[in-house]
Amino acid sequence: MSAVFSPPPAALPTDKELVLKVIPMPADTNGNGDIFGGWVMAQVDLAGSVLPARYIQGRMATVAVNEFIFKQPVRVGDILSFFSAITRVGNTSVTVEVEVYAERFSAQGQYVKVTEARLTYVAIDHQGRPRPVPKHNAPA
């Protein structure tokens, strides 16, 4: 019988904003009993859109998942905290980094980094075409 790998607890980031908290449920599991990666990706996409929405001020679409790394499995009952920071504001797009930390059901108060990603969102008009990101609406 092998020991289960348990990474050391991680400190929550202070340079990113908490944008989402969610608890995965049994219906979100894969065949191994862990949370399905696609479910995690969907939550990261939602969390990633929070800060760009402040810049874009209207419709937007995910144009790229530039990087997505699953570092540890996510389990039923984990409390997931999604932290985000803007890394680039372009003419029509905003790029954001998202880090996901799990507070394990069995180890409350301790966090493990489970996922990190970088996504790009593009501002779109009502016809779905790229439009400029408003410069006057960008937060200071």
Automatic annotation (TrEMBL):
<dbReference type="InterPro" id="IPR006683">
    <property type="entry name" value="Thioestr_dom"/>
</dbReference>
<comment type="similarity">
    <text>Belongs to the acyl coenzyme A hydrolase family.</text>
</comment>
<dbReference type="InterPro" id="IPR040170">
    <property type="entry name" value="Cytosol_ACT"/>
</dbReference>
<dbReference type="GO" id="GO:0009062">
    <property type="term" value="P:fatty acid catabolic process"/>
</dbReference>
<dbReference type="InterPro" id="IPR033120">
    <property type="entry name" value="HOTDOG_ACOT"/>
</dbReference>
<feature type="domain" description="HotDog ACOT-type">
    <location>
        <begin position="14"/>
        <end position="127"/>
    </location>
</feature>
<dbReference type="InterPro" id="IPR029069">
    <property type="entry name" value="HotDog_dom_sf"/>
</dbReference>
<dbReference type="GO" id="GO:0006637">
    <property type="term" value="P:acyl-CoA metabolic process"/>
</dbReference>
<dbReference type="GO" id="GO:0052816">
    <property type="term" value="F:long-chain fatty acyl-CoA hydrolase activity"/>
</dbReference>
<dbReference type="Pfam" id="PF03061">
    <property type="entry name" value="4HBT"/>
</dbReference>
<dbReference type="GO" id="GO:0005829">
    <property type="term" value="C:cytosol"/>
</dbReference>
<keyword id="KW-0378">Hydrolase</keyword>
<protein>
    <submittedName>
        <fullName>Acyl-CoA thioesterase YciA</fullName>
        <ecNumber>3.1.2.-</ecNumber>
    </submittedName>
</protein>
